[in-house]
Amino acid sequence: QIKEPARRLEDIVLSDENSSLLEEILREIHRSEVLKSHGLYPVDRLLFCGPPGCGKTVTAEAVASEIGLPLSIVRIDSVVSSYLGETASNLRQVFDFISSVPMVVLFDEFDALGKERDDAADHGELKRVVNAFLQMLDGFSGKSLLIAATNHDHILDSAVWRRFDEVLFFDLPNVEQLRRLLAIKLRGLRREFDIENVEFVSQLKGMSHADVERVLRRAAKDMILSGKEFLTERHVQTAIHREDVRKSRLKRR
Questions:
Q1: How many other CB atoms are there within 10 angstroms of residue 75's CB atom?
Q2: Alpha-carbon dihedral angle through residues 121, 122, 123, 129, given to the nearest 10 degrees
Q3: At 146, is the secondary structure helix, strand, or coil?
Q4: CA angle 227–229–234, rounded 5-degree value
Q5: Most buried of 7, 173, 203, 204, CB within 10 angstroms?
């Protein structure tokens, strides 16, 4: 899936560590010719680790936007095949394509390809796929930036980690990051509450970036459909309750 990125770095909330690391990575990419003139090359393989909804995909999109390249999302479920040898063949087609066309390539749910090869529960075909993927990473010399994202970094093969130039860890947002997220998502929306209020912001603690975005979207819809001109704390609290109910039902499944 290839898309033109719409989000920029100022549209997302990152930890200070990830923000600094991305600034350094982007500086390398933007000044790649200077590095090459000294026999060095900018990073071209990143690994994003962290729970679902914490900004891995949107960060990949923002990086693509910052360097002016399209974002290509490789859906692992469409690459992996039940037929012997076909998964490696599909991967080879992907690498051939991204080697010839510059883009930012996101391998989503990467753990399906980089799983620990010593796992006794897996059959030989998966081990061959992991080996093939590692070989393709080693041989990659295209102009694209590769980003692998995983929710389960603990099951990655030990050999996978050293194939990446940098690793970024994404966590649930803290209170300060929640406040920044609210400021971005509520930009231009009239409201009756102060997002600097720690007590109010703390109601969202424990939620992922995606959870917060879903809560605010529900609250805004409630405001509009009820004919109100201002978003109130009650709108947000009602949306938080709905999110809590949704999560509890999902856990019971």
A1: 12
A2: -170
A3: strand
A4: 85
A5: 173
Cα 96 to chain centroid distance, Å, stands at 23
Q: Which residue has the tokens 């899936």?
A: 1
In angstroms, rounded to a whole number, what is the distance separating the alpha carbons of residues 217 and 187? 12
Beta pairing, strands 145-150 & 166-169: unpaired
What does the alpha-carbon distance between residue 235 and residue 219 come to, in Å, rounded to a whole number?
5
Determine the Cα–Cα distance for residues 104 and 72; give it in Å rounded to an integer: 6
3-state secondary structure of 18: helix
Q: Give the C-alpha distances (Å, rounded to integers) separating 20 from 17, 65, 86, 246.
A: 5, 17, 40, 35
pLDDT in tens, the chain (253 residues): 899 999 999 999 999 999 999 999 999 999 999 999 999 999 999 999 999 999 999 999 999 999 999 999 998 777 777 665 788 888 889 899 888 889 999 998 887 666 555 555 555 566 777 788 888 888 888 789 999 999 988 888 888 888 899 999 999 999 999 999 999 999 989 999 999 998 999 999 999 999 999 999 999 999 999 999 999 999 999 999 999 998 887 777 6
Rounded CA gap, 212 and 182, in Å? Answer: 8
174, 250, 249, 252: which is closest to 212 by C-alpha? Answer: 174
